Amino acid sequence: MKNNGFSILELMITLLVTAVVVGLLSSNISGLKKLASLFNEQALFREQYLIFLLKFEEDYQSAETHEGVSTSNLDDLSFMFDLNRDEDFDDPGEKVSYRWNESRNRIDRKSGSGSYQAFLDGINSFSWKPSSGTPVCHQMIIKSIYNDSGYKIDFCRKPSE
């Protein structure tokens, strides 16, 4: 009777080939995990960026036009609203401020007399400057940690009468 099993040499070669394949796959898997993590971070940034733009545009368009609106100081870019139409801007919630927090690479936002809260993370640089007088336009340039060329957007509205 002949034994039809595998020889020790055949088993060792099979184990060696399996070990090499597993080693190659495991090194590629860690690289793929890093790539997937970076992709997820970029997708999250894009989502947060779009939410930021929508809220910023809403604040920009609905703000009252008066001397209280600061458009030159990136430490405190404020929009004032007269929500109850009492001709002052001292009531709670009638001021929204944005600032670029350079030390934490983010844009913060605060409403009323509250404190600043993180609103958009992953920012390398932020600029805000007037780009035209009529209509009143400002240009925002945001450079993220994911895109060095930056995102440019113009915000425009008709001057108040």
Per-chain topology:
Elements: H1 8-62, E1 77-80, E2 95-101, E3 106-111, E4 117-121, E5 123-132, E6 136-144, E7 151-157
Antiparallel strand pairs: 1-2, 2-3, 3-4, 5-6, 6-7
Can you tag this structure with a few keywords?
single chain, 161 residues, alpha+beta, 4-stranded antiparallel β-sheet, 3-stranded antiparallel β-sheet, 1 helix, 7 strands, 34% helix, rod-shaped
Widest β-sheet, arrangement of strands: 1-2-3-4
Element-level helix/strand string: HEEEEEEE
Please work out how many helical segments DSSP would assign: 1
Helix and strand composition category = alpha+beta
Number of strands: 7
Fraction in beta strands:
25-35%
Determine the N-to-C terminus distance: 106 Å
Radius of gyration: 28 Å
Summed up, the domain count is 1
Contiguous low-pLDDT stretches (5 residues minimum) are 66-73
Q: Looking at the chains present, what oligomeric state does this protein adopt?
A: single chain
User: What does the largest sheet look like?
Assistant: 4 strands, antiparallel
Question: What coarse outline follows from CA principal-axis ratios?
Answer: rod-shaped
Q: Let me know the average pLDDT.
A: 82
In helices, the fraction of residues equals 25-40%
